[in-house]
Amino acid sequence: MDFFSVLYYRFKKVWKSIRLYLVIAGPGLVVMIADNDAGGITTYAATGARYGYHLIWFLLLLIPIAYYVQEMTVRLGAVTKRGHAEAIFESFGAFWGWFSLIDLMFVDWLTLVTEFVGMTAALGIFGVPAWLTVILVVLLMSIIVLNGRYWTWEKIALGFCLLNLIYIPAAFMVNPSIESIIGQGLIPNFPGGFNNELFFLLMANIGTTIAPWMLFFQQSSVVDKGLQEKDIKMGKLDTFIGSIITVAVAIFIVIVTGTLLNGAPIDDAATAARMLMKTNHYIGALMAIGLFDAGLLGAICISLASSWAFGEIFGWAHSLNTKVKEAPWFYISFFITLATAGVVPLIPGAPLVLITLFVQVVAVTLLPAALVFLILLLNDKKTMGEYANTPLQNIVSTLIVVLIVILSTLYGISALFPNLFK
Amino acid sequence: MRMLKQFIGKIREINQRYAKPKIEMSKGVSFSLAVLRIYLFVLVLLMIYKFITVL
């Protein structure tokens, strides 16, 4: 074969792989980018404002952590064709199953409330009243879900994922010093020494990278999309690309607030957006739009994670490929979760700070259990066959899970007892 | 009332369906579940303590 023939066949092979990836891509990208939800944006904005570029290296470490945990759900979903809730019920019995399901319901609902708080605050910057934001969001999300096709839902969700990249142009608009980013951000360091404040922020960054709903969401999403064992390789690639994008977005947020708000006290992303507007109106607007999109994306995935889990256990039809008539309870549970969470920020004097605190505490009761179940399930050779964890995968994933469990537990306890680490 | 009865019936059915764990209860699995039980027990105690002290 001559040179051009070899080149042609190689190109054809690569193009075929890209086309295959584009068909399979979705669950990994959506779950990872939705991970940058309203709470995540606040954490990254606060990280940049407090420590400038100094913790970028730490954010980079979150890529393998997020990838190794989430890729296990791809294998589990593709091999067992069951969601995470059903897998826990079947493998560990009703006690652990109910514990996980009820805990998931609580933590998802509480997290949804925080997404609505973020969305109403973001659109509030543009003068949109909170009640209107809630109504618009519930309507928009219902329309997206009620279209009756997983495929369409996924493409719309990917569109919102694309909007999440809005922080990239915002970071370029602030003209950051590349030298400072490389010099301060890429060399591991603990600015001001390893103190309690820094430790709390590191824990918050890890806590926002791996959330319980992500495990349940991605596995159910893989099942609903109909991925097979042969698709696992591309599903893992999808998850890997998603984990890179999610951390890249986080870094760009840190660059924006690290450049313009360095040293400013940031309690939430909406405050950061308001402060940025005073410096540069367009950057502040981008920050607010990004916050709204992050809340919306988080809400889309979290409410679905709960509905899928309920459908799996109660035996209801629970696919986005079904019409309302065919799966009424799936859509009713989705709508009820969404609407009740949306109402909370509208209640005058609602304990929103307490709810945010509760999210962290309840999450640490579910996350370790869900992660331990994940590793045990991935070691069940009878079910997983050749896709079971290898010894190396076990070492890496166990180390990551132990790290996440320790840090998220400390994070939860520090939320419960704020003075403990001071 | 009928709906509540149906719901309770459904819960019973789920409990029966998943009464026996399917995973092989090796030493590793049993140990992990025992550690998880202790972890959750301690966490719940901490939450109860916090709840009582706040009240």
Describe this structure in words.
The complex is a heterodimer of chains A (422) and B (55). Chain A is mostly helical. Chain A is built from 18 helices and no strands. Chain A starts with a helix and ends in a 6-residue tail after the last helix. With 55 residues, chain B is an all-alpha fold. Chain B is built from two helices and no strands. Chain B is flat and about 40 Å long. The N and C termini of chain B lie far apart (36 Å). Chains A and B meet through helix 5, helix 16 and helix 18 of A and helix 1 and helix 2 of B.
Enumerate the spans of chain B where pLDDT stays under 50 for 5 or more consecutive residues: none
Let me know the largest β-sheet of chain A: none
* Oligomer classification: heterodimer
Shape of chain A, please? globular
Please give a handful of descriptors for the protein shown.
heterodimer; A: 422 residues; mainly alpha; B: 55 residues
Secondary-structure map:
The complex is a heterodimer of chains A (422) and B (55).
Chain A: H1 3-24, H2 27-34, H3 38-51, H4 56-80, H5 84-124, H6 130-145, H7 150-163, H8 167-173, H9 178-185, H10 196-209, H11 212-225, H12 232-260, H13 269-279, H14 281-314, H15 328-343, H16 352-378, H17 381-384, H18 391-416
Helix pairs in contact in A: 2-7, 2-11, 2-12, 2-14, 3-10, 3-12, 3-14, 4-10, 4-11, 4-12, 4-16, 5-6, 5-11, 5-14, 5-15, 5-16, 6-15, 7-14, 8-12, 8-14, 10-18, 11-14, 13-14, 14-15, 16-18
Chain B: H1 2-17, H2 27-54
Give the structure's gist in a few sentences.
With 422 residues, chain A is mainly α. Helix content of chain A is 78%, strand content 0%.
